[in-house]
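Same chain as my last thread, 928 residues:
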Amino acid sequence: MTRFFTPLGVVSITLALLLQVEPSSAAGADDAAAKAAQPVSGAQRITSVEGITEYRLRNGLDVLLFPDASKPTITVNITYLVGSRQENYGETGMAHLLEHLMFKGTPRHPNVPAEMTAHGARANGSTDYDRTNYFETFTATDVNLRWALDLESDRMVHSFIRKQDLDSEMTVVRNEYEAGENNPTGVLIERIFSTAYLSHAYGHPVIGVRSDIENVPIARLQAYYHLYYQPDNAVLLVSGHINPARTLALIEERFGVIPRPARPLPVFYTTEPTQDGEREVELRRVGDTQVVAAGYHIPAAAHPDFAAIDLLATILSQAPAGRLYKALVESGKAAGVFADVAGMRDPGLLIFAARLPTTASIDAARTALLSAVEHLSESPPSAEEVERARAQLLKQLDRQLDESDQFGVELSEWIAVGDWRLFFLHRDRLRTATLGDVQRVARAYLQSSNRTVGVFLPTPSPARASIPAAPDVLAMLKDYHGEPARAAGEAFDASPANIEARTTRKTLAGGLKLALLPKKTRGAVVVATMRLHFGTEEGLKGLDEVGSLSGQMLMRGTARHTRQQLQDEFNRLRANVAIGGGSESAFVRIETTREHLAEVITLAAEVLRQPAFPADELDILKRSILTNLTQQRTEPQALAGISLERHLDPYPREDVRYTPTLDERIASVGGTTLAQIKDFYKHFYGGEHGELGIVGDVDPAQIEPLLAKLFDDWKTPSAYARIPQQFHDASAQSEAIRTPDKANAYFLAAENLQIRDDDPDYPALVLGNYLLGGGFISSRLAVRVRQKEGLSYSIGSQLSASPIDRVGRFSIQAICAPQNIAKVETAVREELQRALRDGFTAAELNAARAGWLQSRQVSRAQDGGLSQRLANLEYLGRTFSWDAALEEQVRALTPEAVTTALRKYIDPSRLSIITAGDLAAAPSGAHD
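reply #2:
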């Protein structure tokens, strides 16, 4: 539920004293005030930038409306200007705990997860340093919009925030904390923050420290809630298929009755002193991968220097042209590098890091990293490097603008650092930042005395980086208007019938099957998905890893373009492109615009048909894969998953469907040669057997001839025959895998099913699984294990069924503290037995069915997923009428039909259960 890169946090004051009320009576006072208040009318229009208009209600609530008729969905996102920065001693993690409790209901909405599931909403919340946000994306209907606005207005001032909810949810949050403790890289970055910030609260983890999570009094949480969850401390954004005037009226109706609070908000005045020398932190834990990182203080995200810093970080870290990549990865000193620009309301932190195997020298990697970062004054960035980084960053921002539902949530980050318009100002600053600006910020901030990586070393003449204060954002943006708003797309009906009516299909002369869905989209965006199939069961024996490496090498250079040149070209074309493959197929995923589609497809065809397979890139790729595989040797989830797959699907060693152990994979990757990769490509790759789905602002008359020209003559050298999946009647097995020093454990249970997705029982099984472990934490398993007992942050179930072979699977997975493994298993078994014994009520079924149907509508509104579905249906020889028929079958289901299907296929005694974690603390006899 919470988004963390580095879980950190901030400072507060004693909230109950500020309120001057008893926390237990505050809710009642708010209720009375709300009932007495009259709706606010005449929202004030503040400003408008590029299609987004800001209004302010009389109670102080800021409202952003972002109409986008091309999306058949609406996103409601509310951002509260409070995060871990407002936490005091003993309160760390309190903002995040409150975020969890906000899903526990209000008098008018007592079961928030069930409502979200019933409305088919994609919903979540997240906590960060400077803000907390909650959002719902749902099918664009008046009923859904009224529900979402009523829910968020009610949650603002009437959430329960009860002691019994804190008691159960605390253990869930603690489990989330434990999951983060399993990630040494994340913990190391957290330590760097806590060492870099000695005074400011950014040095505290957002998720909090364990003792605060476990012991915070409910009175503090209630006081915190009533102080900060108020209209004058919030920004409400509604984006998607909306009528702005009607939506604003609904917002005034729901939120306008909330009175403007009389209390002043606390002012936080602590600033981090200028760092006066290098600092070092060392982390020692079990693991198989080393990490070295360095953090440097930088200005706030609103500061004019921030754009040049963003460019600087990209210049240093991007692959394969980045300074760090060349200095560490290409030289073999590290397996991978990354950078994070932590832009915040107050001065933030710029972090560079490298991952390397335990066999590599950490001192050599550290020296190389610091040299590459801090010697830019001696070897400053070139104009070419700046332009390459600018193209990369502007492409990312451009794509965000085209997705109004995701962009609405992205704006929470800019709201948090000062104002939503900073997104556009930052983009403008990226466009105008000069080579001199990048060189200047490198000299100003990348100093040894400003870094946190090593021990403190006194020096007689310290050079100090002076970090400017956060600017006056409102003054800076007073006359800012941005660019003209983008052209809007059409209002698109994402029903199966309309999709089918709009889709054209054709098989090209060379064999490639094409499905085209032309429609007007915001920003004239087009997405495409291609999959190519090759090989036979006999021909691919022993070639699984060779095939995987062959696919991963495709984007690392062609006969005409190096890896960097390919990346530069795709950036120039404002395209996100992924091309890869495995032992049985290859794929292409494209997101671009109508203007560039032909060029992007042509370049993608070059990648597929003319790969260069450079030897140095293979060495880099293998090092990265081997480092990741080695790290997985101590990861509970990876080990449990591999063990279960090997038990449930026991194929022979040479079979391409075989699941290897980690040691077998490490040996296979290490032993694969360039000659084998080239030979695999030569024998198997071709364009005869494949499908391509294209959705968006596409001209069929332009694209069809181009595809014929690019792929019709590309023949598949070897025979192709689909490799069937076999049903294995695997017996139940229990296994406990011990991974010392891992605070979070993994529970996995599954059994094979002999079923296909066109069997009569399939619709009932789909809905039965949704009731058991689907939806938004409102399923039987989530309510019992997470909501009531607080044992797990994440638990759910899945059902799979092949569309061709009679092979399927039912599985349940959860994370938890190692000592709770037995409790999780008991709860899972009891809930499964209860469902099979007692079935489900009509109310449960109706709510789940409504949510499942709406969630499918939301999924079809995503053009990327829609293009993949089109390609997959071409492979299966189906149309969207199949989807429509499935939904009609689900609409007709009764509780008895669902229970009968579950009893027929699900047998708890046949579940294989794998647990993994630091199980020394688990009760004896648990799967030993």
